[in-house]
Amino acid sequence: MKWFYIISLGTVLFLSLAPFMLLEAPKPDRFAGKIVAYNVYLSKVKSIDPATCGDVTSTVIQTNFYEGLYTYHYLKRPVEVVPQLADGMPEISDDGLTWTIRIKKGLKYARNRCFGRDETGRPGTRTVTAEDFVLAFKRIADYHLTTKLSLAFIEDKIVGIKDYRGRTRRYQPGNFRRYTEQDIVGIKAVDEHTLRIRLNRPFPQFQFVLAMHVYAPIPHEVIGYYVERENGGVEIPIAARTPEITDYRSAVGTGPYILTEWVKAGRIVLERNPDFREDFYPSEGGPGDEEAGLLADAGKRVPFVDVRYLLFVQENNPAWMMFENKKRDTANIPRDVYTQVITPDKRLLQKWETQGVRLIKDAYPAVYWLAFNMEDPVLGGSKSLRQALSLAYDVEQHIEILFNGRGIRALNTIPSGFKGHAEAGPSPYARLDLAAARKKLTQAKAELVAAGVIKPADPIPELTLHLGGVDENSRRMGAFAQRQFGKIGVRLRVELNDWPTLQKLVHNKQCQIYAMGWHADFPDAENFLQLYYSPNIKRGTNNTNYSDPAFDALYEQAETTVDEQKRIPLYAKMTRILNEDCPVLLLTEPIIYVLAYDWVYNIKLHPVGYGYGKYRRIDANMRRLKGGR
Amino acid sequence: MLRFILRRLGQAVLTIFGVMLISFLLFRGIAGDIAAIHAGDKSSEQYKAEWRHRHGYDLPLLLNVHRRLVVEDKTSGPSRLEVLDVRDRNRFSRTGDVLELILSDDSDHVRLGRYVRFLSAESPVEELTGGKPLAGLREKKSDPQPGQALLKFTLSDGKVLEIDVTGSKTVGQLIRRINESPQNIDPATHQKLVESRISDWTFGDLFDAQFWPYLLHSVTFQARSLKNNQKLTDIIAERAPYSLSLTIPAMAVGWLVGMVISCFVAYYRDSVIDRLGVLLSVLGMCIPFLAFMIIGQWVMFRLAPDHAYGLTTSRANIYAPVAIMVFAGLGRTVRFYRTVILDETGRDYVRTALAKGVSVQSVLFKHVLKNCMLPILTNLILSIPFLIMGSLLVESYFGISGLGDLFLTSIQDGDEPIMNGLVFLTALIYTIGLLVTDLSYAVFDPRIRLQ
To answer: What is the C-alpha to C-alpha distance for residues B222 and B208, in angstroms, rounded to an integer?
Structure first.
């Protein structure tokens, strides 16, 4: 029996040492003497392949090593497209259909084993050519690669994309000869440093599309070394190959950083790319940038930070405590600690200011709303009903209660920072006016009776609101909306769904009212107005099923108007139609709050662009003195 | 004995099959639009339909007794036959597709419409379109006039063919309209350009449905993520060590500490110590796990902020969450172990031993404890599946990149192969665990020997 006790104790001791047997020891002090920026990422990185990138976190990570032809100026507002890998702005033919883009000479990829080894035995590199961009477009158009948004922007815009996509279907997914045997008619490498793209029809927003990193050049060596082979060694049989880039070592780009470590659901380490081209901090800025110290580093070579060390933190609690303990340089404010950080008049509490924390606020180009299904007999049948509901909804209180005041009332369907917003003017129904709402409701009843939807004696039927979340926030939002509609005697039923279910219901047109929104893909009002263009009902982006011939005609006219000065008045006209028709109940435009310690410099939030980590500077000495790492 | 094992194995196979079937059907019931998740919210319907086809989501659910409408391209060329349905000539329909078009991969014939059970020439066209009318019917009085239903084919030699099928009521009529359309004749050769028919069905097609490939992939561990194509086995190999590093020490230490305390409490049965022990156990069971974790982490950030999150500074960081897991589980363990021990102390042999003058310690630690081990070990074996799967909350709060959230995220993200693979794996381990327990009972406990 004595042995039983000894063996049990021994087993317990042995088992409790499991971490030391199963896990690799962390390497200490890898970054001694280097400037390291510490931060966290809150949701998983879904992709490290530019073609399949579709979520914010992946974009934030990818833009450290992939770069597009163009980008947005870091400081200037309203935003401005500037060349990145391209040498100058594109030359556009008179008919607006042919775009010729010159690529900077001498651009080098980050060193990688797929380029072989150079004389000194280090991994090799090579110059970026126009062919690499062509390959990038081919991969995006590839039938066998599930892209998230990169294809949607160019699918019906560039000549031959659909055709190429049809032809790649015939190849096995693992047969990459389709990249050399087949060509996209509309995309051509004229010479080593010139790319020519032909469009189906004039597409003035194409410059914004090219400013996305998803069209970053891909060297064919990556396919040959990593995708067709097992890490450069044994060839993978065609049937077992997958066309997506998934190994972090195969993320080869031209950007300021190299992805040197990626532990899934763990951490990401980005280290300075020593061969990064000469790139400098901008010397011009928007108004107020000079005073905010954002131009102090003007003209200096970037990047400033050597290593970007990102930990995956899923929960708000530890993420916030890491900031509190100076383990990370910047942070968002989780809901539950909001009142411990921000005063009622939206400023930073004294306690944090004395610790050197700064609060940075910026409007985010998104609009949230409650969408009305225009094919619903009740809501689609009565414009006055939609107007009445808009007038009855207290959006100011909605922002205060549900978002801690972090937002502004959306006045029309275009975000306030975009051209066209001011020209269109605020919607007459984007205000709280219960008397007017009641009046509109009486009209609504008459309209519905006339249309035969309800009988004269009936009240307005009970409406249903579908929300795309099952958490506490959604419950509160549902209850709030019930109170708002209840003020004018309209009954509302709230149904909570998870996000995919809501999408399915909306797609099948089974919802009456549903909470939706749109985040800008590029800084042009077209991105928001296309949501009401009736052919997009079938495409799925117009989910209110709004259809108005006058609006469609204006949209089609604006689509091909290259001159922005002529386009803006069209946008304004379209917005005014929407203002009157109220296919959505406009709620908010969010405002982002970011906290940063004073050892971090050059923080300016960008509304649509990514990849500005290279401009950030950190005073590591100050951080150490103040108790950080 | 052999017969017993075989019978149990047979039961196990049936159980696992049942679990797989139920979880498959349940998930289909709640899943939402999987194509929208994987192909992106902003992509077009056509693109989503292609995605569904590529991943077999257009197939019938369980058994394929379905037929479809097939259109064959009689011209041959390098490009594929492309079908577009157009209504009202330049305007897309307002009620959705005329036919839900899903293009097949075998290059030269195109299948139109969804799979329909026992499709025949007499079936109404609505069966192909999911109940939607074929031609653009008037929806409002203000609509100008009912539209035309046009099928537009792009043939592989680049010709475009437009066939008016307005007014077709049955599938047979639709087929005739396509085959006998005046446009459908090559002026040079007088041959048909495309030919339409109902697909053949043979008995071999029966299992050409969504469920079986998934079952096969799960059982052979070939499941690959829809998100990034990673193999389930690779994901587990990569992340299970983290989960095991957390759960194995927690289980071992939890067992030891639980045993010591419950022996102590049982020894002083019915005294103040016993009452206090039970009270504290119940109290510990009442406090939610999350509370232990938040408080534990708060304390860690106060005491050793460098070691409070993640394993990047040291592997020993893992002992903070291990301690929390042990502590949070203690209430339950002590209550259970105490009951088991007291159960045993009430038996006749204990009374006899005590009556014969054997000391209490000796009885407790030599005999009782040994006999208690059986139910306790059963309990431990049953928790083995959960060791590998990790602990969702602890892992996400303490930055341990284990498998804890894999199940949850695979359901949330609609990553069905991974989810099914995990269901299979859990069911398998659990069933094996039960089998081993039963066998060990039969071997070690002479009272439970089977006839």
So the answer is: 18
pLDDT tens digit string along B227-269? 777 888 888 888 888 888 998 999 999 999 998 898 888 888 8
Residue holding tokens 């069971």?
B285
Phi, psi of A577, rounded to the nearest 5 degrees = -60, -45
| H/E segment holding residue A268 | strand A267-272
**Beta-strand (E) ranges in B213-335?**
none
- Cβ proximity of B120 and B175 under 8 Å: no
* Mean local confidence (pLDDT), A118-124: 87
Q: Do residues B65 and B206 touch, judged by C-beta distance below 8 A?
A: yes
Cis bond leading into A303, ω under 30°? yes
CA-CA distances (angstroms) from residue A410 to A169, A365, A617, A626? 44, 11, 35, 41
A147, A293, A368, A386, A541 from B41: Cα distances, Å: 11, 39, 16, 26, 8
At residue B398, does pLDDT exceed 80?
yes
- State the Cα–Cα distance between residues A86 and A272, nearest whole angstrom: 22
Whether residue B40 has pLDDT greater than 90:
no
pLDDT score for B368: 83
Count of CA atoms in the C-beta half-sphere (13 A) of A259: 26
A307, β-bridge pairs: A36, A271
Residue B370 to residue A4, Cβ atoms within 8 A? yes
Kindly report which listed range (A539-548, B55-64, B353-362) carries the lowest average pLDDT score.
B55-64
B315 with A266: Cβ contact below 8 A: no
DSSP state of B207: G
- C-alpha span between B93 and A439 (Å, rounded): 36
- CA separation, residue A346 to residues A256, A329, A405, A600 (Å): 36, 21, 8, 22
Number of alpha carbons in the 13 Å side-chain half-sphere of residue A152: 24
Rg, chain A, Cα only:
27
Predicted-complex ipTM score:
0.77
What the block records as the tokens of B109 is 């014939």
Q: Assess contact for B372 and A4: CB atoms under 8 A.
A: no
Residue A286 distance to chain B (closest CA, Å): 32
Between chains, do A26 and B33 touch, taking CB under 8 Å as contact? Answer: no
pLDDT tens across B97-153, in order? Answer: 334 443 333 444 455 556 677 777 777 766 666 665 555 444 444 444 555 666 666
* Angstroms from B74 CA to nearest CA on chain A: 17
Largest CA distance in chain A: 95
**Tokens (6 digits) for A315:** 């929960």
- Predicted local confidence at residue B219, as pLDDT: 84
The pLDDT value given to residue B154: 64
Cβ-nearest to B311 among A4, A17, A26: A26
* Residue A18 in tokens: 């499991």
Q: How many CB atoms lie within 10 A of CB B327?
A: 15
Contact B32 A534 (CB under 8 A): no
For residue A279, which of A259, A260, A304 has the smallest C-alpha distance? A304
Strand order in the sheet with B82-87: B82-87, B149-154, B160-164
Average pLDDT over residues A370-397: 92
Whether residue B94 and residue A266 make contact (CB cut-off 8 A), yes or no, is no
Tokens read off for B113: 């419409």
- Quickly list H helices, B31-86: 34-39, 45-54
Residue B92 pLDDT grade (very low, low, confident, very high; cuts 50, 70, 90): very low
User: How confident is the model over A282-304, as pLDDT tens digits?
Assistant: 998 888 888 888 999 999 999 99
| Cβ pair A336, A46 in contact under 8 A | no
Q: Is A504 close to B41, i.e. CB distance below 8 A?
A: no
Q: Quick one: CA torsion of A261, A263, A265, A271, rounded to 10 degrees?
A: -10
Distance from CA of B11 to the nearest CA of A (A): 33
B51 contact residues in A (CB cutoff 8 A)? 146
Q: What is the pLDDT of residues A180-222, one digit of tens each?
A: 988 999 999 999 999 999 999 889 899 999 999 999 999 999 9
